[in-house]
Design a protein that fits this description.
This protein is an alpha/beta fold. The protein contains 11 helices and 8 strands. It folds into 2 domains: 194 residues, Ribonuclease H-like superfamily/Ribonuclease H (Nucleotidyltransferase, domain 5, 2-Layer Sandwich), CATH 3.30.420; 55 residues, no CATH class.
């Protein structure tokens, strides 16, 4: 992904049972607001079914000021990325690189994946979550032990996490933790991405951010505010103006896309 990319290829014995390649990734960003903040560094570790691993790390010009409090966490400042490519310049190549892959990360279902989807949608590239599985190693960890990535790395792998909050170090640690989790909880966890995806899901989200989820009957319902638990189609039908309010408010682009799809479906229009 451009001249700034570092690439390492490893030939190791495959520990994960994969039907498709899986990309573990970690983002360093300007902040934690999914709808507003931008990526400043992304690291991806692509693991193939045959056991090969590829790692790429690239810094990104967010085209906005990086707040001091964010820089203090990841060590990346405006000066460090002023000559780096923007996400728009990287998006097509990155989308192609992860096409056909499942995705994994640490707290990825609640942060990294929603924010990455926003970046793609912002530059006109669709990010379809229905075609891939997501494994959140943090959720597996919290269900089993209740800790952080550094603690998880030490707990499962017996190592100290050097360079924490650098995307590359966090990505590799996440991958190693997942493999160690499979070893430790072999009687409870299946070495199968479909199982791990289901196990690490906190809700059955319709959108990435979890504003809309599936209930126990598989119906799309709102997961926030006064309409929490109420079917989306019912709210849109009975509360005039609610759709427009959400579209004009500070919700993620992907949430708005999902909402529009449900609205069109409820009106009898064919949606792909």
């Amino acid at each position: 992904m451009g001249g700034q990319t570092t690439l390492k290829i490893y030939g190791v014995i495959m520990d994960l049972n994969l039907a498709n390649p899986i990309v573990f990734f970690d983002l360093e960003t300007t902040g934690v607001n999914i709808a507003k903040d931008r990526i400043v560094e992304i690291s991806v570790l692509k693991v193939f079914p045959n056991g090969k691993e590829e790692q790429k790390t690239i810094r990104v010009n967010p085209e906005m000021h990086i707040p001091e409090e964010a820089s203090q966490v990841h060590g990346i400042y405006d000066e460090d990325v002023k000559d780096c490519p923007s996400f728009k310049n990287l998006a097509k190549e990155l989308a192609h690189y992860i096409e056909g892959c499942d995705l994994g990360g640490f707290n990825s279902n609640r942060f990294d994946i929603p924010l990455l989807a926003e970046e793609f949608l912002r530059v006109g590239i669709d990010f379809d979550m229905s075609k891939r599985k997501f494994v959140d190693v943090q959720t597996i960890f919290h269900k089993m032990e209740q800790r952080t990535l550094s603690a998880a790395y030490h707990f499962y792998c017996g190592k100290c996490l050097e360079d924490a909050h650098t995307a590359a170090a966090d990505t590799m640690a996440t991958y190693e933790v997942l493999k160690a989790q499979l070893d430790k909880y072999g009687d409870k966890l299946e070495n199968n991405i479909g199982f791990l995806s289901e196990f690490s899901a906190q809700n059955k989200n319709v959108d990435f951010a979890g504003f809309i989820i599936y209930d126990e009957k598989g119906v799309e319902v709102f997961n926030f505010g006064k309409n929490k638990g109420i079917p989306v189609e019912k709210v849109l039908r009975e509360q005039q103006g609610y759709y427009d309010w959400m579209m004009k408010s500070d919700f993620p682009l992907y949430t708005k896309k999902v909402l529009t799809k449900i609205k069109l479906k409820s009106s009898g229009m064919v949606v792909h």
